[in-house]
Amino acid sequence: MNCPLRVLLAAAVLAFPAFLTSCDGQAPSAPEVDLAAVEAQPAPSAHAGGHIVSGKATLWVPEPWNQWMNLPFHAVEKPDGSVHGNWHHQFRSRDAGGRVIVEVLCMAVSGNQAWLGGRSTYAMNPDNIGKYFALYLIDNGEGKNAQADQMTRTLWFSWDEQRMWDHCTYMPTDYDVWPLAGGNVQIR
Fold first, then answer.
1. CA distance 76 to 53
2. pLDDT > 90: percent of the chain
3. Which backbone phi and psi does 66 adopt, to 5 degrees?
4. Residue 48 in contact with residue 169, Cβ under 8 Å?
5. Are 58 and 182 in contact (CB under 8 A)?
6. C-alpha angle 139-140-146 in degrees, rounded to nearest 5
7. 61-79: average pLDDT
8. How far is CA 130 from CA 2, 49, 119, in A?
9. Do strands 52-61 and 67-77 pair parallel, antiparallel, or not at all (unpaired)?
10. CA–CA distance from 50 to each of 2, 15, 16, 85, 145 (Å)?
11. How many C-beta atoms lie closer than 10 Å to residue 51's C-beta?
């Protein structure tokens, strides 16, 4: 039997290591591993791109808006720097409620804070389709002793695309934010 066939057969019977031999008939030796070098390597990431911002929020926005917002969101930064994701803004107020679905076009992350911006692809009011919106989110950690995560109401930039891009570029923190009444913000 030639050596390559023996190697293939050996691979097929990995459950029986006693039958494995090297090409020269000797028992194979374990490769030398530099454990210090392995431990120094960062753990592989499940996502090869940049940041991921996701969650689901229930938020009461007080005067002058007086509305409950339910908002699931998810945004992923791809390896080429582009962003993919959306959020679904559903609100209820003294007036009729509404829904808007926003395609995320930009994202910025600094520590536990994230800025998302995008354009609406669906709105209960057809006049809002194609308009620009933004969010500012704060992830205050996990566990029973952590403060509630915080966020803004959905910021409405109407037809001002540049204002949406500036939101992600300059990362302003002077927006009103409120603690979530339910849900969670995850910034990774």
1. 7
2. 52
3. 45, 65
4. no
5. yes
6. 145
7. 88
8. 68, 27, 6
9. antiparallel
10. 49, 40, 43, 13, 28
11. 16
Query: Can you name the residues that pair with 132 across neighbouring β-strands?
Result: 119
Beta strands (DSSP E) in the chain are 52-61, 67-77, 83-93, 98-110, 113-123, 132-138, 150-151, 155-156, 178-179, 182-187
Per-residue pLDDT at 86:
97
**Cα separation of 183 and 72, whole Å?**
9
Residue 186 has pLDDT above 90, yes or no: yes
Does pLDDT of 42 surpass 60?
no
Handedness of CA 125, 126, 127, 129 (dihedral sign): positive
Give the integer Cα–Cα distance in Å for 114 and 151. Answer: 9
The model's confidence at residue 22, banded by pLDDT at 50, 70 and 90, is very low
Return the structure tokens found at 128.
């809002």
